[in-house]
Amino acid sequence: MSEKSIVSLQKIREVIKERMKNIKYKIMVLSGKGGVGKSMVTANLAVALSLKGYDVAILDADLHGPTIPKMFGIENETITGFSAGIIPVTTGNKISIVSIDFMLPSEDTPVVWRGPIKTKAIMEFLSSVVWGCKDFLLIDLPPGTGDEALSIAQFIPNVDGVVIVTIPSLVSQHVVRKAISFAQKLDIPILGIIENMSYFRCPQCGQIHYIFGEKGGEAIAEEMNIDFLGAIPIDRRIAECSDRGESFLVKYPDSEIAKSFMNIAEQIIKKVENRKNG
Amino acid sequence: MSEKSIVSLQKIREVIKERMKNIKYKIMVLSGKGGVGKSMVTANLAVALSLKGYDVAILDADLHGPTIPKMFGIENETITGFSAGIIPVTTGNKISIVSIDFMLPSEDTPVVWRGPIKTKAIMEFLSSVVWGCKDFLLIDLPPGTGDEALSIAQFIPNVDGVVIVTIPSLVSQHVVRKAISFAQKLDIPILGIIENMSYFRCPQCGQIHYIFGEKGGEAIAEEMNIDFLGAIPIDRRIAECSDRGESFLVKYPDSEIAKSFMNIAEQIIKKVENRKNG
Predict the structure, then answer these.
(1) Alpha-carbon distance A141 to A62, whole Å?
(2) Which residues of chain B neighbour A175 with C-beta distances below 8 Å?
(3) Rounded to a whole number, what is the largest CA-CA distance in chain B?
(4) Is the pLDDT of residue B110 over 70?
(5) pLDDT exceeds cutoff 80 at B154
(6) A108 touches chain B (CB under 8 A)
(7) CB within 8 A of B188, min separation 6: which ones?
(8) N or C: which end of chain B has fewer CB within 10 A?
(9) How far is CA B237 from CA A117, A206, B66, in A?
(10) Are the C-beta atoms of A226 and A194 separated by less than 8 Å?
């Protein structure tokens, strides 16, 4: 890379920092592997924080599909660029969303740009977002611990913590270790582990089935000496809400899932506040 | 990139081609998104082809964890390098396996090398594998349609077809479109779509639950004018077998899943043979 382009990347980084200076807490949501429901967890955690009265924004930095916009029913929205910069899209529940997918040309375009070009484009895009004053910014990273997650993680300044999402199976526990190692290398504190798809309660007979294994998230949390934030059961209504762009927590506030997310949100608030004040 | 390194990459590509010249059919397994069970599908498809009497090899090119070796219970094996090159590990059911994870130093190391270095290392690794004579090579690509999947896909010569794995939910259908577009850009024929986690049959009461949505895989296949190869239901015993490194198809040959995989294998054999002979 030439000296000139390093200088320009450095400048972009500074602009991003300036743009994010009025965000109180920045939290990354990471998984060692895709498909564990990281985006679902990010979206519902944002809703939980918002229901608790906080101003919340989401940066959907997962390049493999506009999952977050779709979950909030805003996938057909376009971001508006003013001279001041790009303004996030606001959802019905007042969450501000910026998705990297918004900058892609068409729904069917796979992201086949090569690394360096893509990283630069993402950085330029990010450096023009007008976030304003927010209590929380949740960052939905690309799955895994590869280049994409690393590139994006590196140019978001002063991240307050990482939440790791996993599913219970042992095969997946294996990759959680990589996620923990990734967070440690980036020197970002790990707030804890959320276990998704923990079990399925048959709506017909009430029997609980540990489809993807039993309590693997708790086991790995204990083994790695990391807090276990909570378990989210499997619920077909989650997929239905996601597909329709409806908020599960608003629609089913008394569900096990909603209670679990509210509890997890509370733990995260305490953790980041203690860290900032202590 | 300097002229010299382009020449050297070109040379590595030629060596890989030479190394793979006695493999009859090369099939890539792709997903638009992680966590849809792509590696599980690859592993069981390999077993199904092997049970039908074919010589099968797997290239586990998914960098985010040694899922394939773990599923076959060979994650602690090390590949042996002779002067002739690297010899794949052979499983109990005589499937030859090479995992890119074998070249990584430790279980907990996340892949945080930057793109170009990583690609070169992978290519050099691949160029030294002694595959020998095989009927089928299944290539488990990294999830998604990003740089990693693209880099690896690009340096495997003369691929006979792509199988796309998805789950039924609509949110995931969205990303299937990206996978199709990805295969088309690489100019590899699409053999069809496999829908994983299609439904869950409660072992207690027998009720079928479409946990992740109903028949989304069939719908997207029809919409995109692509063959639907089959549906794989959710079965807790799959996770158990994966965790223990046991072969599900050998252990439960009469299960719905086993029958579905045997049927899918048959369709794939017909398709590639017709293509080669026609």
Answers:
(1) 5
(2) 64-65
(3) 66
(4) no
(5) yes
(6) yes
(7) B28, B153, B159, B161, B162
(8) C
(9) 44, 20, 20
(10) no
Name the pLDDT band for B168 (thresholds 50, 70, 90).
confident
Contact (CB, 8 A) for A265 and A230 = no
In chain B, the residue whose alpha carbon lies closest to the alpha carbon of A204 is B207
Q: Provide the residue ranges of all domains of chain A, joining segments of one domain with +.
A: 3-277
Q: Which of A21, A124, A107, A120 is nearest to A64 (CA)?
A: A107
Tokens of B10: 């070109």
Share of chain B above pLDDT 90, in %: 50
Class of the CATH-defined domain A3-277: alpha beta
pLDDT reported for residue B163: 97
Cα–Cα distance, B72 to A136 (Å, whole number): 43
Q: Which two tokens stand for residue A75?
A: 């996938």
Chain A residues inside the 8 Å CB shell of B177: 107-108
Contacts A–B by Cβ distance under 8 A: 205
Chain B 37-56, residues with CB within 8 Å of chain A CB atoms: 37
Q: How far apart are CA A61 and CA A138, in angstroms?
A: 10
Q: Mark yes or no for CB contact A110/B212 under 8 Å.
A: no
Query: Residue A37 and residue A241: Cα distance in Å, rounded?
Result: 14
- Whether A217 has its CB under 8 Å from any CB of chain B: the answer is no
User: With pLDDT > 90 as the criterion, what percentage of chain A qualifies?
Assistant: 51
What is the pLDDT, as a whole number, of residue B244?
A: 87
Q: What is the pTM of this model?
A: 0.82
In terms of Cβ atoms closer than 10 Å to its own Cβ (0-12, 13-18, 19+), residue A256 is middle
Most confidently modeled range among A139-143, A265-269, B104-108:
A265-269
Closest by CA to A212, choosing from B87, B200, B235, B159, is B235
- For residue B61 the two structure tokens come to 């090119």
Rounded to whole angstroms, how far apart are CA atoms B120 and A234?
A: 41
- Residue B85: phi and psi, rounded to 5, are 140, -165
Q: Measured between beta carbons, which residues in chain A are less than 8 angstroms from residue B180?
A: 108
- Whether this model's ipTM surpasses 0.90 comes out as no
Measured CA to CA, the distance from residue B83 to residue B100 in angstroms comes to: 19
Residue B30 and residue B163 in contact, taking contact as beta carbons nearer than 8 Å: yes
